[in-house]
Amino acid sequence: MKPSELNVLVIDENRIRAAIIEEGLRGAGYDRVTVIDEMHGLARRIAELNPDVIVIDLENPNRDMLESIFQLSRAVQRPIAMFVDKSDEASIEAAVEAGVSAYIVDGLRQERVRPILKMAISRFNAFSRLNRELEETRGELENRKVIDRAKGLLMRSRGLSEEEAYALLRRTAMNQNRKIAEIAQSLVTAASLLDPGAKE
Amino acid sequence: MTTRHAITAGFVPLLDSALLVVAKEKGFAEAEGVDLTLVRERSWASIRDRLAVSHFDVAHILGPMPIACNLGLSAPAPKMIVPMALGLGGNAVTVSAALWRAMAGEGAKDDLDARGNGAALRRAIGRRRGEPLRFGVVHPYSGHNYELRYWLAASGIDPDRDIEIVVLPPPDMGDALAQGLIDGYCAGEPWNTFGVLERGGHLATVKAAIWKSSPEKVLGVNARWAESHPEALAALLVALHRASLWCARPENHGELAQLLARPAYVGRDAALLLPALSGTLPVGGGIVRQVGDFFVPHAKAATFPWKSHALWFYTQMVRWGQIAHTAGHRRIAAQTYRPDVYRAALTALGVAMPSASAKVEGALTVETPVGSSGALTLGPDGFFDGGRFDPDDVDAYIEMQAARRSGD
């Protein structure tokens, strides 16, 4: 059996992350990858697929169920949790850190599984990074919107130009050691309190 | 207090995480110099894994799970010890409205009686055609699994042949019941109260009726951490002891329910948490029953890690085919629970505690004063079928249970 012939099952309720892992594994030459994002009927699916390696996100609340399926099933080869090789504590820690857990059919040699685990860890980390960046971008967009509204308020109520309004916000933020977006938010909130009907 | 101890504890959002939550929120940890960080997890597997890689130093964990880990049953993780229990009881068996109707037709009553309602369930199963009934539990190595199986087996129901037992996350139990995916479940709180009040379920019986004063969650500790941080562990045990006293006071139940209801902890309405604390349980159909010892956080040496509890869990692992019985396995099970660590930490407080490390389970039929001070009472600790477990004669108990199984 070549490494690529290992039968890998990815269980993840997050379809995007599952797709990222699947793509990574296929790119590395693992052709037999199955993705499951639906927990219902899991026992039957595992019996049908008879995977050599199962990758699942650590936070999945169904892991207790998954482990009980391994315990009960006499039909499939019994997979065991990845905490097998104590000499490999560093990679186990990296996996838990990244939020991956893996189950490996008993008897399968560690070095055949390690590349899969490594791939899953790096893809999980990449996904988290992507998520963080997305949130940051979303946050920046929100900030820009609130700053625009605050500028509008200043321009109308004090007859400032857009540039002057922005400069005033920036100066206030610097004086108070706060972010421009925070000052803008305070201004928008205050304005809506003073004049609830007004749309700036 | 000069020394500060930073301790990270994992917990699963359940009522019996109360001692850890109270130790932190009511300042008992702080008073002992412990900076306690609580981290919520959604599965016991995750608790185990994070303990193994030292993300957690200690955790709220199922009583049998550290034993299973040390026996190599669930991933050969680093060794764990149990220096304290986190209360007694707290579980119940909830069944669907349809199954309750069938049981009531066979004589089941609203009294939560394990014997009568177990017999009614047996008769209802006898009449049933088609698919076997399906019951949910939270984990294979859980008090829930073992007490459900004990109740069924002693009621003449074979838990492997006559019904099917599946594992589900506790928050999903009520929905699975309402959708007909399962017919009943054994879980901790607030999930029985939730099933009854919001998903049309009915209580069949409670843990305290199957086995009085029986063990449930414990404090699982990474053994390596315990060895290198004996002072921190002792300080935490003192804090948890004080928390258990606080939890036991009826005047604190309302505040405790509010605390646990916070999103960071159980994250459910306080009204779902209060019944288990007060022992006033909605059983279904608007009926309420008082079960005084439903969940016991402090009384009856509720935090004492009895070796006889560890050994009873071990006998059930053997009984249900999870592990072979050997003298070596029995020793590992007994050594997982550490009353010596408990005593060493709490002796200085003058706390009344048992002088023995194990007791004959099921021997006390009434509340019984123990120890010279008379400040401590134990029991009753009876099994509903009158069974007794002598921890000095594990072999005989295992043989007796095996014989009963092959004999039917």
From TrEMBL, chain A:
Q: Where is the Response regulatory domain?
A: 7-121
- Gene Ontology molecular function terms on file: RNA binding
Any one of the GO BP annotations: phosphorelay signal transduction system
Coiled-coil region list: none
Q: Which residues form the ANTAR domain?
A: 127-188
- Residues modified as 4-aspartylphosphate: 57
| Pfam families in the cross-refs | ANTAR, Response_reg
Family matches, as InterPro entries: ANTAR (IPR005561), CheY-like_superfamily (IPR011006), Sig_transdc_resp-reg_antiterm (IPR008327), Sig_transdc_resp-reg_receiver (IPR001789), WH-like_DNA-bd_sf (IPR036388)
Q: Which Gene3D superfamilies does the protein's record reference?
A: 3.40.50.2300, Winged helix-like DNA-binding domain superfamily/Winged helix DNA-binding domain
Q: What is this protein called?
A: Response regulator NasT
Question: What's in the keyword line of the UniProt record?
Answer: Phosphoprotein
